[in-house]
Design a protein that fits this description.
Elements lengths: L3 E2 L13 H10 L4 E7 L16 H14 L5 E9 L13 E5 L2 E4 L14 E2 L8 E5 L4 H11 L4 H16 L6 E2 L28 H16 L3 E5 L1 H4 L10 H9 L3 E5 L12 H10 L4 E6 L2 E6 L3
Parallel strand pairs: 1-2, 2-3, 3-4, 4-8, 8-9, 9-10
Antiparallel strand pairs: 5-7, 6-7, 11-12
C-alpha cells in the first residue's frame, strides 16, 4: 500500500499552516507522498477561503521549494482544488494535478424575495442571460437550511438535484483528475446530537429523488474517468462522524466501475494523514480492492493490502 494524501491546504487559502509545516506533518504521519493544493480564486463571489490571484506564483514557488527540501524523505506534489465557479480562463500552469470541487448551490429565480438579508450576487449564465444566484453549501447549517427552505420552498430533493447537476459540467472538464467530497451538501446532517434546534437532517439520503440526482452526476463522472476522493476532512474538523461519499453512494460508484483515491482534506499539519487507514478499510467494505495514486505525473492503481 502506498499512503498518499493529495488534498491539503495552507495559509494561502483556508489552511492553518505553511507548506513546510504540512509536509512535516505528512512525514510524521508516515505518508509516502503528499500534495499541497490551493483553493482556486473565485473572483465573481466575495470569498475568504480562496487563494488571491496575486499569491498564486508565490504558492507554487513555496511548494516546489519544500519538495526540494524534503526530497530524501517524501514526495511532494503541487495541486489545485478547482471550484466550478472559477473563471474558465484560470491558468493551470505549474499545477501537477487538479481536484474538481462544487462548493455552491444555485438558487432559483425569485429567491431574492425571501432572502432579505442576503446580498444578491448573480453569476451570468453561459448563454449571457441574467444569471443565477449561488451560495456556499458548507458555510453553516443555518445558512444552508435557509437556502433550501426559502430558495426551494422546503423541497430539499429539488435543491439536491440542482446541486448534483453541476457535476455534469465538472465531468466535461478534461483537466480535472479527482472529484472532491462529492456529497459535500450533506456536511451538516450528522451527527444528530449536534443538531440541537433542528434534529431532522436537511437531506434524506435514502430518498429516491435525492439518490437519482446523486447517481446522475456520478454516472457522468465515472464515464469521464474522474477519480472519486474518499475524504476524511469533515471528520477531522468535527463536522461529521463518517467520510464522503456516503456508503450508499460509494457502493454505487463501485458498481458503476468508478475509481477512488484517499484524501485527508487537511488544513492543519496534524491532519495530514488523518484516518487514511480507516478510509482504506471503508473502501474495502464497499467492494474496492485498489486506490489510485499520483506517481511521476500519472495516476496508477495500487492494491489495498490488509
Amino acid at each position: 500500500m502506498i499512503w498518499q494524501n493529495l488534498h491539503s491546504h495552507t495559509f494561502y487559502d483556508d489552511g492553518q499552516c505553511t507548506a513546510d509545516m504540512m509536509v512535516q506533518g505528512a512525514i510524521e504521519a508516515g505518508l509516502d507522498s503528499v500534495g499541497i493544493c490551493c483553493h482556486s480564486p473565485i473572483t465573481r463571489q466575495d470569498t475568504t477561503w480562496c487563494i488571491k490571484p496575486k499569491d498564486i506564483n508565490d504558492f507554487k514557488h513555496e511548494v516546489y521549494m519544500v519538495r526540494e527540501k524534503y526530497k530524501q524523505h517524501i514526495d511532494v506534489y503541487c495541486g489545485v482544488e478547482l471550484d466550478l465557479m472559477t473563471d474558465e480562463k484560470f491558468d493551470l500552469f505549474g499545477f501537477e494535478y487538479v481536484i474538481g470541487a462544487v462548493h455552491f448551490l444555485p438558487l432559483p429565480d425569485g429567491t431574492e424575495e425571501h432572502l432579505k438579508n442576503e446580498t444578491i450576487d448573480r453569476i451570468p449564465t453561459e448563454s449571457g442571460g441574467v444569471g443565477i444566484m449561488y451560495r456556499e453549501v458548507d458555510f453553516s447549517r443555518e445558512k444552508l437550511k435557509y437556502y433550501v427552505d426559502y430558495g426551494y420552498e422546503f423541497d430539499a430533493a429539488a435543491a439536491a438535484e440542482l446541486y448534483y447537476s453541476q457535476y455534469l459540467k465538472l465531468a466535461k472538464n478534461p483537466n480535472v483528475d479527482i472529484v472532491a467530497h462529492y456529497d459535500l451538501i450533506t456536511k451538516f446532517d450528522e451527527p444528530v446530537d449536534r443538531r440541537k434546534q433542528d434534529p431532522e437532517p436537511i437531506f434524506d439520503i435514502e430518498d429516491k429523488a435525492y439518490l437519482e440526482a446523486a447517481f446522475e452526476g456520478m454516472r457522468a463522472l465515472v464515464k469521464s474517468e474522474k477519480i472519486f476522493e474518499i475524504n476524511t476532512g469533515a471528520v477531522s474538523r468535527g463536522y461529521r462522524d463518517s467520510f464522503y461519499p456516503a456508503e450508499r453512494l460509494l457502493r454505487e460508484i463501485k458498481n458503476m466501475g468508478g475509481r477512488i483515491t484517499l484524501g485527508a482534506d487537511a488544513h492543519r499539519p496534524e491532519h495530514a494523514g488523518f484516518m487514511l487507514e480507516e478510509a482504506a478499510e471503508y473502501a474495502v467494505k464497499c467492494g474496492f480492492e485498489e486506490v489510485w495514486v499520483l506517481e511521476k505525473g500519472k495516476f496508477v492503481p495500487v492494491p489495498i493490502r490488509e
